[in-house]
């Protein structure tokens, strides 16, 4: 989503690496990088297990990609992001040598890659420097490398996960699994103010909620254009909360208790699977509507992943609304309230002569807002080529220097995903934008294949297969 997998040079398609082996007793899965989250979860559930990291793209996102960006999703509030679930990483370094990097054990390899030898000689100093960094006080962060976790653990796995292909190519993973929750219940609560919603999110965190999603009034406006909403149209924000428990009775009781404690204008409980699914359908209602908007009005995701300290969430949402208003743009705002992590989809009319200037000004203003609030530009999608040139504005200079040192250890010639995490000289955040009508046309077969990806949501199909079929 941030342009992490595109760029000049050789693009490696790992989607055919789909080996999948479960160790039910140990609650472990060994998977190829091309296995999708939905494939793993379906196999795990047959044994009463599941994989709790569940992005909204879970039907087609690959586990290799999820590890590369340290992906998360709504249930990260209780279960954490991808990094916490990775036991080992099979990878290939820039010189072509493979290794399996394991937690608590030395790497497995036929011969020691030069990158690992350089890393071992610097490991202690890297960890000491990581411990001294000033990092954003946020609950989720997929910007930069995983210094916070590495400072605590000293594990190379924690640096490779979230590195977006800049240190090594991830070819396989061993992942921990969890037991499927016995019972869940859902709460849909509407609030007249953002502050009320943030207080509700804090209450949800305090009782150990599995998920707590924010749908702001702009989200409700779009959703309400095609369906009847179960909440008042003048609500400033809605929380969608999920609780799990050992049985249905306890789940329902927990939902009733939390619902009664919320200072909300309305509360709806979903204590059985049918009613809960109906409430969660509101969360998924907007994407199909956005996909049907006129081609001139594109939902552009260039400020779509910021996270801020929890108390700053109202200020962030209001600041984004104000920036959109200043530029006469609508935008859909939603996200993970429990983690103060917000997705913003501005709607841009590409027939306007100044649309690019609008996009650049909006991005600049939201970066300034994020810096003022002590936040990060990426909570779960990574830096990519979009955010890498902005890191000097949002991160401690010492962190940028340490990142450059790490990159030099693993990829001294700059071969691995150049322009991601570490910007290239002169790199700008917004260069080629796929919606730009003035871009040179793609070859017919490539255009046909990419249109099929978008219309059929065929994101998990090998690109070479798509190209062959379109040819």
Give a short overview:
Helices cover 37% and strands 17% of the residues. It contains 18 helices and 15 strands. The longest helix is centred in the first third of the chain and has 18 residues, at 114-131.
Descriptors for this entry?
globular, Alpha-Beta Plaits, 471 residues, Uridine Diphospho-n-acetylenolpyruvylglucosamine Reductase, domain 3, alpha+beta, 8-stranded antiparallel sheet, 18 helices, 5-stranded antiparallel sheet
Topology:
Layout: E1 20-23, E2 28-32, H1 37-45, E3 49-50, H2 63-69, H3 76-79, E4 86-92, E5 98-102, H4 114-131, H5 147-153, H6 157-160, E6 169-176, E7 178-179, E8 183-191, H7 194-206, E9 211-216, H8 217-224, E10 237-245, H9 248-261, E11 266-270, H10 273-283, H11 286-291, E12 297-299, E13 306-307, H12 313-326, E14 331-336, E15 341-349, H13 355-372, H14 384-387, H15 391-394, H16 397-410, H17 444-456, H18 463-470
Antiparallel strand pairs: 1-2, 2-6, 3-7, 4-5, 4-6, 8-10, 8-11, 9-10, 9-14, 12-15, 13-15, 14-15
Helix pairs in contact: 4-5, 4-16, 12-13, 17-18
Task: Please tell me about this protein's structure.
The chain has 471 residues and is of the alpha+beta class. Among the domains are: 20-179, Uridine Diphospho-n-acetylenolpyruvylglucosamine Reductase, domain 3 (2-Layer Sandwich); 183-289, 2-Layer Sandwich (Alpha-Beta Plaits), CATH 3.30.70. It is 37% helix and 17% strand. The chain has 18 helices and 15 strands. Strands 8, 9, 10, 11, 12, 13, 14 and 15 form an 8-stranded antiparallel beta sheet that branches. A 5-stranded antiparallel beta sheet has the order 1-2-6-4-5, with helices on one face. Strand 14 and strand 15 (341-349) form a beta hairpin. The longest helix is centred in the first third of the chain and has 18 residues, at 114-131. The chain is globular and about 65 Å long.
């Amino acid at each position: 989503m941030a342009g992490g997998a595109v760029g000049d040079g050789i693009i490696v398609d790992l989607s055919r690496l789909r080996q999948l082996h479960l160790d039910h007793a140990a609650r472990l899965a060994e998977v190829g990088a091309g296995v999708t989250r939905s494939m793993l979860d379906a196999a795990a559930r047959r044994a009463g297990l599941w994989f709790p990291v569940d992005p909204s793209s879970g039907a087609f996102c690959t586990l290799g990609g999820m590890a590369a960006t340290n992906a998360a999703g709504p249930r990260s509030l209780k279960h954490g992001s991808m990094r916490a679930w990775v036991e080992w990483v099979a990878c290939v370094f820039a010189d072509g040598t493979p290794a399996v990097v394991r937690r608590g054990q030395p790497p497995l390899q036929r011969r020691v890659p030069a990158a690992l030898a350089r890393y071992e000689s610097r490991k202690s100093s890297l960890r000491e420097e990581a411990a001294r960094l000033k990092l954003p006080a946020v609950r989720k962060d997929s910007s930069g490398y995983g210094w916070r976790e590495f400072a605590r653990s000293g594990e190379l796995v924690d640096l490779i996960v979230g590195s977006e292909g800049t240190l090594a190519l991830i070819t396989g993973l061993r992942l921990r699994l969890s037991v499927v929750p016995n019972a869940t219940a859902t709460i849909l609560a509407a609030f007249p103010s953002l502050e009320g919603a943030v207080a509700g999110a804090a209450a949800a965190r305090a009782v150990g909620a599995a998920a707590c999603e924010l749908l702001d009034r702009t989200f409700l406006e779009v959703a309400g254009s095609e369906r009847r909403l179960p909440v008042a149209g003048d609500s400033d924000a809605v929380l969608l909360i999920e609780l799990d428990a050992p049985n249905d009775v306890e789940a329902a009781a927990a939902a009733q208790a939390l619902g009664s404690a919320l200072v909300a204008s309305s509360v709806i409980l979903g204590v059985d699977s049918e009613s809960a699914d109906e409430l969660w359908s509101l969360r998924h209602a907007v994407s199909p509507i956005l996909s049907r908007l006129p081609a001139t009005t594109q939902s552009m995701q260039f400020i779509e992943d910021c996270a801020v300290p929890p108390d700053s969430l109202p200020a962030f949402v209001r600041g984004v609304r104000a920036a959109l208003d200043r530029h006469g743009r609508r935008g859909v705002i939603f996200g993970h309230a429990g983690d103060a992590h917000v997705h913003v989809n501005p709607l841009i009319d590409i027939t306007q002569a100044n649309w690019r200037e609008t996009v650049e000004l909006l991005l600049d203003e939201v970066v300034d807002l994020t810096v003022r609030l002590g936040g990060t530009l990426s909570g779960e999608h990574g830096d990519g080529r979009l955010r890498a040139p902005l890191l000097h504005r949002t991160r401690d200079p010492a962190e940028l220097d340490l990142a450059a040192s790490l990159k030099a250890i693993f990829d001294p010639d700059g071969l691995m995903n150049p322009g991601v995490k570490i910007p290239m000289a002169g790199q700008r955040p917004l260069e080629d934008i796929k919606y730009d009508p003035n871009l040179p046309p793609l070859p017919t077969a490539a255009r046909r294949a990419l249109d099929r990806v978008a219309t059929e949501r065929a994101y998990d199909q090998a690109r070479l297969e798509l190209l062959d079929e379109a040819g």
